Amino acid sequence: MIQNKIDYIKRGAFDELYTPKEAIECILPYIPNTVKIIWECTAIENSEIVNVLEANGFKVIKSHLKDDLDFFEYEPHQYDLIITNPPYSLKDQFLKRAFELDKPFMMLLPITTLEGKKRSEMFQQHKVQVLIPSKRFNFIKEKKGSWFQTSWFTWKLNLKSDLIFMNV
């Protein structure tokens, strides 16, 4: 749980990067056919994650801390998969909470998330799989793109390989 919600909302410089449409479209083939309901736990108004998923026939449960639906305290009654682009300064907490919920997930995170002893142990224990796009996504933050590579960190999707390089 995050102690101070004001600090949670006003975090690091790369915490409010809005996911571009192409970042969602490239993962559609990797969503299992059994998935009908997806929880987007950091959904903002006009979220491309929500828009693309709904346009492709998924029911999307939207939540966000600003709406008093804190990912660390709230969980929908029924959903099949979490898909989100969480605040990067809180990636460890989001990953830990997602593993605790014991539901499949796809999180868009910097590729450097693979670094670090604690995360390495966590990823090995849970058998995380990663979808790696062939290019950087152009996140929009105050009309500037991001300079770093992101990838989709997944769990419980039973992908054919632990590392999948996607042509985007």
Automatic annotation (TrEMBL):
One of its GO terms (molecular function) is nucleic acid binding. One of its GO terms (biological process) is methylation. This is tRNA1(Val) A37 N6-methylase TrmN6. It comes from Flavobacterium croceum DSM 17960.
